[in-house]
Amino acid sequence: MTSPSANKVTSAPPQEPDPNSDVSIARLKAILKSEPECVKTVNRQGELIDLNPAGLNMVGATDVDQVRGMHLSMMVDAKDWPKYERNMNAVFRGETLRWQFRCNSPCGEQRWMEQTAGPVRLEDNPNIISEMVAITRDITEKKLSEGQLVTAKENAERASAAKTKFLANMSHEIRTPMNGILGTVDMLSETPLTDRQQEMLSIIQQSSESLLRILNDILDLSKVEAGRIELAKTGFRVKEQMQELQRLHSANASKKGLALKITGCEHMKAERYGDPIRVIQILNNLLDNAIKFTSKGSVTGKFQCSSCYAGTGNQTENDAARVHFIITDSGIGMTEEQTSRVFEPFSQADTTTTRRYGGTGLGLTIAKTLTDLMQGTIEVESEIGRGTQFDIALTLPTLDATNNAPYKTDAGGDPTTAPDNNTPPVRILAVEDGEVNRLVLSHILKKLNTEVSMVHDGKQAIEAFKQDSFDLILMDIHMPVMDGIEATAEIRSIEKQRGSQETPIAAVTASVTDAEVDHYKTLGFSHCIAKPTEPARIREVINSIRS
User: What is the pTM of this model?
Assistant: First the structure.
């Protein structure tokens, strides 16, 4: 009988390959020969000991004997050698490092290299580091690409800065005369006029306001592209916005014989949380377009919470938060192709549309961008000759007893409310160099229970401030002799010397980009009033200092 163990096969434990065997050495040589990157060994003096074929090719040699003993400083660019030498010394202290450097190729061309280097220790005494082994690869193309990207980025930033500066200058140059035009129109409207004169005055006013809307659209698009639009978080009622929209657009609709009706479900009475200014900006743009492109019929706005929109009676918390704004018109409509690009900048249905109806083609682009910023949706349905419908859905949570979101109110109260004539007049120092703008400003301030001292430049403003005290200073920014920024700095310095309380100073200016308004705050201004100057805004500032 055969023993059970007779057929048992036993295997010996695997043998570790001898690194000093001819087979192992041949294998290592084969690996180094086929390695596409440069592999080199260097002694403690920084001299080459060995190079693989890729390394020989990199330095323009055919045999290692041609370069053995060569000092690395002869290959590394002089500007990078100090760093290279520090890193090499660190490797001989036992570190493994990666770094980049420039070297000079055999043909004289400078190349960028990236190198990973580590220590080689003696086998019989690991504490002794005899050599450095390094793998070096050419990254010149990568560096060139990075350089091109940096250059492109710098060029784009310069172009953006130039564009911002241009828009700021254009804003100032256009708003300044517009302030005079709209202010003079307002004053003229209060004088006795014939029906024909009133009609012509109305045309001037509408044309001026249209030009101002175009300017605002272009500035808003610039803010969008620069990512500078920030959303406010405040309490508001959609019901009040509905009434404001009806008031704003009724006149234009009436002139075209259109029926304008804006309605809302019962849940629109609730206080909501979001950015009311941007919400009404979206709806203004859509209603402007609807009226512009409708010659007969009607324009409607229907504002509903999600449950009413869906026609269900069960309202959940999410239904209450989601609000749909549906703007529908019976206008010219659009083709499917036109609908697909309606939100693109400067896009209108075709060139005849631009000639016939005017506009920049930016309103819907801005509406779409603002909707996206609010994480909402905007959808459009249209048919040629049958009209267009826009459906905007935004999340505007309701404010209730369990909601801690703040409900902001204007500290100055309703800016459209006239001041109580029993209150003492506000003493104002108005600083304005333009004759027409002084006339407009004086006209506005006369209606607001104020006592006004008017001067022409910053130097006169400082002298007036030294001689008298004021409740408010309205300071133009761009003036001859001394501008408003210098004058404000001097006034703040005088107040500091006196130890007196700071006088509210409002920058009254046509330069009102976001960056400029933020800058005014850092310079000591407490308010900013944009030109063209709106009486309601001045009244708002006055009310704020009365409170």
Answer: 0.48
Contact (CB, 8 A) for 451 and 471: no
Asked whether the CA dihedral 89, 92, 93, 99 is positive or negative, the reply is positive
Residue 425, C-beta contacts closer than 8 angstroms, at least 6 positions apart: 449, 450, 451
Task: Please give the Cα distance from 478 to 102 (Å, whole number).
Answer: 52
Q: Which DSSP symbol is given to 139?
A: -
- Quickly tell me which residue has 């000092």 as its tokens: 71
Sign of the torsion formed by the C-alpha atoms of 275, 414, 432 and 486: negative
Q: Tokens 């959808």 map to which residue? A: 379
Note the pLDDT tens digit of each residue in 80-97. Answer: 999 999 999 999 999 999
Cβ-based neighbours of 138, under 8 Å, separated by 6 or more: 58, 111, 112, 113
Please write the tens of the pLDDT for every residue from 141-179.
Answer: 888 888 888 888 888 778 777 776 776 677 667 777 777
> For residue 483, what pLDDT band results from cuts at 50, 70 and 90?
very high
8 Å CB contact between 514 and 222:
no
Mean pLDDT, the chain, whole residue set: 81
What is the torsional sign of CA 148, 154, 160, 166?
negative
Amino acid found at 8: K
CA distance 37 to 43: 20
Token pair belonging to 230? 């920030």
- For residues 44 and 38, what is the distance between their CA atoms, to the nearest angstrom? 19
- Note the pLDDT of residue 98: 94
User: Model confidence at 476, in pLDDT bands (50, 70, 90)?
Assistant: very high
Compute the C-alpha angle 262/265/269, nearest 5°: 95
Structural domains present in the chain: 28-138 (3.30.450.20), 154-225 (1.10.287.130), 234-395 (3.30.565.10), 426-546 (3.40.50.2300)
- Tens digit of pLDDT for each residue in 10-51? 444 445 555 555 555 566 566 667 778 899 999 999 999 988
* 532 vs 530: CA distance, rounded Å: 6
HEC string of 339-360 equals HHCCCCCCCCCCHHHHHHHCCC
Residues ≥6 apart with Cβ < 8 Å to 329: 290, 291, 293, 294, 297, 298, 299, 300, 387, 388, 389
Backbone angles phi, psi at 231, to 5 degrees: -90, 135
pLDDT tens for 424-455 read 889 999 999 888 888 888 888 888 889 999 99
Q: Tens digit of pLDDT for each residue in 292-304?
A: 899 999 999 999 9
Q: What is the mean pLDDT of residues 238-260?
A: 88
